[in-house]
Design goal:
globular; 542 residues; Rossmann fold; 18 strands; alpha/beta
Length: 542
C-alpha cells in the first residue's frame, strides 16, 4: 500500500497543495486530474521520490516495489530492447547481472559457487526463467515487432521507444505503478491492450492522462487537485465530471430545497450506475456505483473555454467530391492511392490512418496547400472552409500581442469584438497584450481556435484539435463539435471526441480507403472491418 501524510508543496508564495492525506490501495486505479499547472505530474514525482515535499512524507509498505514510466527517452540508448524491459524489475536484473558475471569467471571458486547457488534460488523465486518470454509478450502486446526485441534502444524511433519504456514500467508485476501520460504516441489498438491490462492489474495504479476514454476505462477513483487540496472520489472521470457539473448547477440554484437537491443527486447516481453496468469498464467491474454518494463533491474551480462555431451561410447540396486522389512522397513512400468519396450534408467524418503524415497531407490537399499527384478535389460553390492545422508554429513567428494577432484574421477590427473572442478562450484582462511568440502549446491552440471561430466557415477541417489542450479545453471542443450541424472533417487521438462526434469513418491506406457510415466504436468492434483493414495494410507490405 502507498500512503501520503500531511503532504504539502509550495513554490515561493504559490501553494500547489497542502495537508494532503491519502491512501492508495491494491486493486484500484487512481486518475490524477486538475487544471493545467495544478501539479499533477509534480505529485507523481513526489510519490516516486524524485521531488521532496515541503512537508509530510510518502510511505510504501516495506518490501513492495514501485515502478515509474520513464520520460527520458535516451536513458537506455546503449541497452538492447529486451534487456531494457527486464530492467524494470531492478532487483531481478541485478540478480541476473551478478549471476552472469560469476559464470563468466575463468577461475570459479567455492565462494563463487555458493553465491551462484544463492542467486539461482533468488532467480527462481522471482520467476527469472520466464523473464525474457514475459518481456517479449509484453512488447508484442504493445505493438513492438519481434525483430526489434534484440536491437539497441538507440536504433528505435521515438514512438517505439515510448512503447518499450511503457513495457519496462509494467514488467514484473510491481506493487505500485505510476504512469504519466501513458497513451501518448500509442495507436488505438495498443491503448486498448493497455486498458485491458490495467483493468485486470491487481495492484495499485496511479495515472495522469488527458485521454478521457482511457481514464473512464481504467479508473476506479479520481484524485482531484483543486482548492489547494487533493480529494479522492469513487468512480471514473465521467462520473466526477458530470457530478461536479451537477453540483455547480445546484450551487447556482439558491431556491432549490435541500430535499430536492438530494433527490436529484440520487437520481443522477442511479442513472450513471445503470449506464456503467452495461460497459466493460474497470469501474463497473471493481466498484458498484450504486454505493456512491456525491453530496461531498464540490463544484470545480476550473474554467472551460467558450467554443462556439457559427457558419456565415448554410451549405448547399454540393459539398465535396474527391476522385481518384493519390499522393507519393519525394522518397517514393505511397501515402494514399485512388481515394474516391462524396460528402453530403451533415457529414462529420473522422479520418484515420496508421501514418499521420498521410492525413495531414490529405487535409492540406483539401485546403489547396499541397498538390496531389493525380485525381481531383471539387468543392461545392457554397462551401467555406475553416482549417485548424496540426503544426501552427508559422502563425506565431512575429511579436504581435494577442489583440493584434487575432485582429489580422477578422473583418471587424473593433477592440471589444476581438476581446470577446479572446475572452471566450480564457484570455482576459492584461493577458490580451501578451506577445504571441511566447505562448505555450495549449495557448497557441486556443488562439488558433479563436481564429477558426472568426472564420464563420460551414466546413471545418481539424487536424488533431485536442493536441496540447487540457481536459477542460478538450471537453469544450468536444461539446462544440457535437453541437455542430454542418460539415466536419477531422482526425484526433481523443477516443471520446471521435466516438461522440463522427457519424462517418474514412480510413486512409496506401492501397485505398475504407469508408463506413457508423460510429467510431462500431467501426473498431466490427470483425469484418478488422479483416478488411488487415487485408488493406497487407497489400502495402506486399
Amino acid at each position: 500500500m502507498l500512503s501520503v501524510s500531511n503532504l504539502s508543496l509550495r513554490y515561493g508564495k504559490r501553494v500547489l497543495f497542502e495537508d494532503v492525506n491519502l491512501k492508495f490501495t491494491p486493486g484500484n486505479c487512481y486518475g490524477i486530474i486538475g487544471a493545467n499547472g495544478a501539479g499533477k505530474s509534480t505529485f507523481l514525482k513526489m510519490l516516486s521520490g524524485e521531488i521532496e515535499p515541503a512537508t509530510g512524507q510518502v510511505s510504501i509498505t516495506p518490501g513492495e516495489r514501485m515502478s515509474v514510466l520513464k520520460q527520458n527517452h535516451f536513458e537506455f540508448d546503449g541497452s538492447p530492447v529486451l534487456q531494457t524491459v527486464i530492467m524494470g524489475n531492478k532487483k531481478l536484473f541485478e540478480v541476473m547481472q551478478e549471476k552472469d558475471a560469476i559464470y563468466a569467471k575463468e577461475n570459479f571458486t567455492e565462494e563463487d559457487g555458493n553465491r551462484a547457488a544463492e542467486l539461482e534460488t533468488l532467480f527462481a523465486e522471482m520467476q527469472g526463467w520466464n523473464a525474457e518470454s514475459d518481456a517479449a509478450n509484453m512488447l508484442s502486446g504493445l505493438g513492438v515487432a519481434e525483430d526489434l526485441h534484440h536491437k539497441l534502444m538507440s536504433e528505435l524511433d521515438g514512438k517505439t521507444k515510448v512503447r518499450v519504456l511503457l513495457a519496462q514500467a509494467l514488467f514484473g508485476n510491481p506493487e505500485v505503478l505510476l504512469l504519466d501520460e501513458p497513451t501518448n504516441d500509442l495507436d488505438v489498438d495498443t491503448i486498448t491492450w493497455l486498458e485491458n491490462f490495467l483493468a485486470d492489474f491487481e495492484n495499485t495504479v496511479i495515472v495522469v492522462s488527458h485521454d478521457r476514454h482511457f481514464l473512464d476505462a481504467v479508473c476506479t477513483y479520481v484524485a482531484d487537485i483543486d482548492y489547494n487540496r487533493i480529494q479522492l472520489y469513487a468512480g471514473n472521470y465521467s462520473f466526477w465530471y458530470e457530478s461536479s457539473q451537477l453540483a455547480l448547477r445546484q450551487k447556482s440554484d439558491q431556491n432549490k430545497k435541500i430535499e430536492d437537491k438530494r433527490k436529484e443527486l440520487q437520481e443522477f447516481v442511479e442513472r450513471f450506475s445503470a449506464n456503467a453496468s452495461k460497459s466493460r469498464q474497470a469501474t463497473s467491474r471493481k466498484k458498484l456505483l450504486e454505493k456512491l454518494v456525491v453530496d461531498d463533491i464540490k463544484p470545480s474551480t476550473r474554467k472551460y473555454p467558450g467554443i462556439i462555431f457559427k457558419p456565415e451561410r448554410e451549405c448547399g447540396d454540393q459539398i465535396l467530391n474527391v476522385e481518384n486522389l493519390s499522393k507519393t512522397t519525394n522518397d517514393g513512400t505511397v501515402l494514399f492511392n485512388n481515394i474516391t468519396f462524396t460528402l453530403v450534408k451533415g457529414d462529420k467524418v473522422a479520418v484515420l490512418s496508421k501514418e499521420h503524415i498521410a492525413i495531414t497531407t490529405f487535409f492540406e490537399i483539401l485546403m489547396g496547400l499541397d498538390t496531389q499527384d493525380s485525381g481531383n478535389v471539387i468543392w461545392g460553390s457554397t462551401i467555406t472552409k475553416g482549417y485548424l492545422p496540426n503544426e501552427n508554429a508559422k502563425f506565431f513567428n512575429g511579436d504581435d500581442n494577442l489583440m493584434d494577432w487575432l485582429r489580422q484574421f477578422s473583418a471587424d477590427k473593433d477592440e471589444t469584438y476581438i476581446r470577446g473572442f479572446l475572452g471566450k478562450m480564457l484570455f482576459s484582462g492584461e493577458e490580451v497584450f501578451k506577445k504571441s511568440n511566447v505562448l505555450s502549446g495549449g495557448e497557441k491552440v486556443r488562439c488558433m481556435l479563436s481564429r477558426l471561430m472568426l472564420s464563420n466557415a460551414n466546413c471545418l477541417i481539424l487536424d488533431e484539435p485536442t493536441n496540447h489542450l487540457d481536459l477542460e479545453s478538450i471537453t469544450s471542443i468536444n461539446q462544440a463539435l457535437k453541437d455542430w450541424k454542418h460539415i466536419a472533417i477531422f482526425t484526433s487521438h481523443d477516443h471520446e471526441l471521435v466516438h461522440t462526434v463522427a457519424n462517418r469513418i474514412i480510413e486512409i491506406t496506401p492501397s485505398g480507403i475504407i469508408d463506413k457510415r457508423m460510429s467510431y466504436d462500431e467501426y473498431l468492434a466490427d470483425e469484418n472491418i478488422k479483416a478488411l483493414r488487415e487485408e488493406m495494410y497487407a497489400k502495402e507490405m506486399a
